[in-house]
Amino acid sequence: FTHLVMSYAVDVLYWEKDDGLFLRGVYSGALLVGRVINIFVTFLLTPSRIVLMDCAIIFVGFLLISTLSSYTVVTWVSTAIIALGFSSFYTASLMWTAEQFYFTGRIESVIGLGSSTGSFIFPMLTGYLMDKYGGKMFVYVEVVNVFFMFLSIIFLGEFLSRKANSKNHKIVEPNNYTAVSKRDSKENCFEL
Q: Would the pLDDT of 30 be above 90?
């Protein structure tokens, strides 16, 4: 979003370049405010709830900007809403993944590769579609992207919960003093 929001403002909404830069500044400022707020939100909500909340916030922001972008105020507000949603999405996703998997270098590499690939491919794809089919494709591609993010999180959560339910049974040691879950490592033993 941040890579093409200025192009969207200047080429589609016919704003001045200074206003487009200021819009990008509003996005960055709202991102900062959202990250500060999310320091306290993490004490109240689980990572999975934060991720779902972020997806909903981002979707609402893109829904507003896609339907009411002819109103200047809506564009400013929806850009800030989108930034608030994105402010904790990546971090909460990492926290949620860490709850589900034992983080190894391989898992961290896959996450980093996926993040870098998305940061590289989506702006190019969105820019190409904007050139070919018009600037409004920026918003449509982002709405579809958020929708698929939301679906993939729901399906991944369902898959992980089924996997955990099928494998999360207790193994009791012969001395009956220690029970270990298959999901837990040896350091996470607990006494009965």
A: yes
Give the C-alpha separation, 41 to 165, whole Å. 28
Is 65:139 a contact under the CB 8 Å cutoff? yes
Residue tagged 């200025």 (tokens): 6
> Using an 8 Å Cβ cutoff, are 14 and 75 in contact?
no
Of 187, 156, 163, 191, nearest to 177 (Cα)? 191
Q: For position 177, what pLDDT does the model report?
A: 42
| Residue linked to tokens 């893109």 | 62
Confirm if 138 and 7 have CB atoms less than 8 A apart. yes
Where is pLDDT greater, at 89 or 2? 89
E strands within the chain? 170-172, 178-181, 190-191
Alpha-carbon dihedral sign for residues 158, 159, 160, 165: positive
Return d(Cα 82, Cα 76) in angstroms, integer: 10
Q: pLDDT tens digits, residue range 7-27? A: 777 777 788 888 888 888 899
C-alpha distance across the termini of the chain, in Å: 51
Parallel, antiparallel or unpaired: strands 190-191 and 170-172:
unpaired
